[in-house]
Amino acid sequence: MHKVVGIGLIVLLIGYVLWIATSGTSVAPSETVVVNSDTARNPTEERSFEIVTVLGFDAIPSIENPRFVNQSIADETYDPDELVLGIEIDGDARAYSVPVLSRREIVNDVVAGKPVAITW
User: Fold this and answer.
1) Spatial distance between the Cα atoms of 59 and 71, rounded to a whole number of angstroms
2) Is 96 inside a domain boundary?
């Protein structure tokens, strides 16, 4: 079992690297930030931190034209304690799963004929 999981993780990593390489998204170069330390103890000490950008600009695609299910199917599919972001405009109500939003971060939708962007 451990060997299967290990191979699966390796395949996932290779797939992620290939996705980054072929997505046309460039990874930004790293930056260095210099922070002055506590000047009361040592006024000349500076600390440097390198900021590494893992995902490039627009590397996480938004959800376009989301599909919704009726309440009975949602009750069977989702955990009763699952967090959602909700919106209601002119009687048109929607719920967006926070775990899904944590992976995709933005949903472009139309609610009651009005375009909305749901972000997390």
Assistant:
1) 32
2) yes
> 59 is written with which tokens?
């590397």
Is residue 16 situated within a structural domain? no
Residue 97: how many CB atoms within 10 A of its CB? 19
What b-and-e string marks burial along 2-41, b requiring 16 or more CB atoms within 10 Å of the CB?
A: eeeeeeeeeeeeeeeeeebeeeeeeeeeeeeeeeeeeeee
**pTM score, whole prediction:** 0.53
Task: Return the closest-CA partner of residue 85 out of 99, 73, 74, 71.
Answer: 99
Q: Are residues 51 and 70 in the same domain?
A: no
- Do residues 69 and 44 both lie within one domain? no
Residue 39 token pair: 């000047």
pLDDT in tens, 73-94: 988 988 889 999 999 999 999 9
**8 A C-beta contact, residue 92 and residue 109:** no
